[in-house]
Amino acid sequence: MKDRSTIEARLDELLQGAHFPVRPETLERAWHLTPTEPSTEILVIVTFRAKPGQMSELEEAAREFVVAARQLEGGLFSGLYRSPQDPLTLTLVERFEDQSALDRHMRESYFQRFQIAQRPLLSQPAEAAVLHRR
After folding, report:
1. Short-list 18, 115, 17, CA closest to 62
2. 75 vs 69: CA distance, rounded Å
3. Contact 123, 47 (CB under 8 A)
4. CATH (residue range 4-132)
5. Residue-wise pLDDT tens digits, 72-116
6. Residue extents of the structural domains in the chain
7. What value, to the nearest 5°, has the Cα angle with vertex 69 and ends 66 and 75?
8. Sign of CA dihedral 44, 34, 80, 69
9. How many CB atoms lie within 10 A of CB 10?
10. Where are the alpha helices (DSSP H) in the chain?
């Protein structure tokens, strides 16, 4: 098992790469609330950047997605955040019990609908980070 400092360094690297729009103090508090025992839990962070004039439509489609995702068995959390630094950026954060829950989520019709709906609204492809807690 990796020591906690190695895991923390990897998490920092992934979050910086995903341009997660959260203050470092918030991430630090969340990290210390995380249990240290092994887990099958998966965290997914997806960043969307809307085309100018398309944010309200993207946000509406994303909110419908979040509402549907919250009904999924094995889904622990689904939430949408708007960047205070960049009004065209949305971040989706989701937690799943395990890989099978994430797989079910990705097969659901609401997931497929959102994939289609978001494409013409984005200025660039969505960026996703999938984190496995060990």
Report:
1. 115
2. 7
3. no
4. 3.30.70.100
5. 999 999 999 998 899 999 999 999 999 999 999 999 999 999 999
6. 4-132
7. 125
8. positive
9. 12
10. 4-17, 24-33, 55-69, 99-107, 109-118
